[in-house]
Amino acid sequence: PVASLLPFTVTPNRKSASPTSFRLTEKFILLLVFSGFITLCFGAIFFLPDSSKLLSGVFFRSSSVEAETRTGTVSDQNPGTGKDEKILAKIRKDHEKALLEAKDTLQKRPEEINQDIKREKEKVAGQMKGVKADSLPLVQYVRPPGATGHEPSDPDIKEKRAKIKEVFFFLFIIAFSHLKGATIVDALDTLYIMEMYDEFEAATEWVERNLDFNMVFRKKAVELGEKLLPAFKTPTGIPWALLNLKSGIGRNWPWASGGSSILAEYGTLHLEFMHLSALSGRPIFAEKVMNIRKVLNRLDKPQGLYPNYLNPNSGQWGQHHVSVGGLGDSFYEYLLKAWLMSDKSDDEGKKLYYDALQAIEKNLIRKSSGGLTYIAEWKGGLLEHKMGHLTCFAGGMIALGADGAPDDKTGNQMELAAEIARTCHESYARTSMKLGPEAFRFDGGVEAIATRQNEKYFILRPEVIETYMYMWRFTHDPKYRQWGWEAVQALETHCRVEGGYSGVRDVYGSTPNHDDVQQSFFLAETLKYLYLLFSDDDHLALEHWVFNTEAHPLPVIKKPSPELTNHLK
């Protein structure tokens, strides 16, 4: 039976609807999954280059390869077999076909391309007419508690929580009036969590009206998931980083170790694709991400570590660069959260996570002469004593997984999480603005300080606040709320501008030099984690909810009990 995800409950301030329409909470859960796909799609939009050399190196489209990778047989073939030659010949043929299509597209005028897109949309709309939501299987669901909370009893905490909500409301009004786009989609669940139901309803209606989501959201989420499947058309099943949704042609970033796929990209699909299989009753989405595990399990890991680059054609590692920050971070997070989201039934995900963490502790975690614990980067066997702001999420991740640690290591892992949280706080405290730099170093006599100009900027990132939130939930040490409030005050002082909140170019400067950019993750992640830091523990309780890497909460997938089945009949 398919695990259930959709909440069929009544929400406050929701007008009555016809039996065939979706209610507010139903849209909320669907949008959690859908927003993850939207984020991926915005990153996947790319323009075909006019370099034939580049095109021939990174593009292909092969249905036969897709069929092989679904079953996992391509990677298992013995080298030099005739079947391999046939597959490579098919890939070369499809390369040539893709080149011709790309060159034809490049010769068209912009208005002709726009007309093609319009005709394609009309064609899809015509095909979808008359399709009903019940074409997808009935999904049983019991709504986990805590999607919304209640006011804290402590007046000081209540006031701080209200301040964070006020900041979010200020930004949402600006975004809804002038920006829209990805910011609105990314902020939908934060609106709901903060109980801004009227604004949530207005934002949902805007999404339906302006992003062509004229079908029920579950149907649209499945349709979008199917649009992403061609990204997996590689000999190994490791997906491309970029995908042209119209042509189905994928490619990787040219700078990524000879066109390799990136660990934090292909390794950060598991939660969403497992949910999508449960939403649709179609196992193909789960099969795609489980195949990624099979490929990784067959590879030798240097010192037990996972390099950031993997060639999707050969199935071999690229450069031996290992990072728990940028390029690698969320892969490790998703190993742990796959186990948690499965209601702790995914034993393989659990083992992979704790094995990886053991290798990280042994090879990457170091302590400075001043007593600060940090996670270095590994490049071909040599350590670079640098820790990125992105890496600071690891404190929260380690705390989240400490309870399930093997061999009575729970206490050690909680201590490690606390030490990383302290180090990341120091990276904030040692700047003039009390905001953390993009990266900080532990060499040349400095500790937790950025020494290079291109590492001194702050772009409203959430990772440090994320760790504070988890550490508060597991320890209730008041310093984490204190540190979070210090960050709120610094944001108000140095980042708030007339039109919203801006990043700053140098956190060590005496006055802020704004970059004039407000990232959508500031609303979706930073402010959400701050709000939860000052909320009670039963608001999105961690035993019922799992946050994806963009801070969108997904419910733990539980097997439906016989009592639930009878109740839903």
TrEMBL record:
<keyword id="KW-0735">Signal-anchor</keyword>
<feature type="transmembrane region" description="Helical">
    <location>
        <begin position="28"/>
        <end position="48"/>
    </location>
</feature>
<dbReference type="GO" id="GO:0006491">
    <property type="term" value="P:N-glycan processing"/>
</dbReference>
<dbReference type="InterPro" id="IPR012341">
    <property type="entry name" value="6hp_glycosidase-like_sf"/>
</dbReference>
<keyword id="KW-0333">Golgi apparatus</keyword>
<keyword id="KW-0325">Glycoprotein</keyword>
<dbReference type="InterPro" id="IPR001382">
    <property type="entry name" value="Glyco_hydro_47"/>
</dbReference>
<dbReference type="GO" id="GO:0004571">
    <property type="term" value="F:mannosyl-oligosaccharide 1,2-alpha-mannosidase activity"/>
</dbReference>
<keyword id="KW-1015">Disulfide bond</keyword>
<keyword id="KW-0106">Calcium</keyword>
<dbReference type="GO" id="GO:0005975">
    <property type="term" value="P:carbohydrate metabolic process"/>
</dbReference>
<dbReference type="GO" id="GO:0005783">
    <property type="term" value="C:endoplasmic reticulum"/>
</dbReference>
<dbReference type="InterPro" id="IPR050749">
    <property type="entry name" value="Glycosyl_Hydrolase_47"/>
</dbReference>
<dbReference type="GO" id="GO:0005509">
    <property type="term" value="F:calcium ion binding"/>
</dbReference>
<keyword id="KW-0472">Membrane</keyword>
<keyword id="KW-0378">Hydrolase</keyword>
<keyword id="KW-0812">Transmembrane</keyword>
<dbReference type="GO" id="GO:0070062">
    <property type="term" value="C:extracellular exosome"/>
</dbReference>
<comment type="pathway">
    <text>Protein modification; protein glycosylation.</text>
</comment>
<dbReference type="InterPro" id="IPR036026">
    <property type="entry name" value="Seven-hairpin_glycosidases"/>
</dbReference>
<dbReference type="GO" id="GO:0000139">
    <property type="term" value="C:Golgi membrane"/>
</dbReference>
<keyword id="KW-0479">Metal-binding</keyword>
<keyword id="KW-0326">Glycosidase</keyword>
<feature type="binding site">
    <location>
        <position position="549"/>
    </location>
    <ligand>
        <name>Ca(2+)</name>
    </ligand>
</feature>
<protein>
    <recommendedName>
        <fullName>alpha-1,2-Mannosidase</fullName>
        <ecNumber>3.2.1.-</ecNumber>
    </recommendedName>
</protein>
<keyword id="KW-1133">Transmembrane helix</keyword>
<dbReference type="Pfam" id="PF01532">
    <property type="entry name" value="Glyco_hydro_47"/>
</dbReference>
<comment type="similarity">
    <text>Belongs to the glycosyl hydrolase 47 family.</text>
</comment>
<feature type="disulfide bond">
    <location>
        <begin position="392"/>
        <end position="424"/>
    </location>
</feature>
<feature type="transmembrane region" description="Helical">
    <location>
        <begin position="167"/>
        <end position="185"/>
    </location>
</feature>
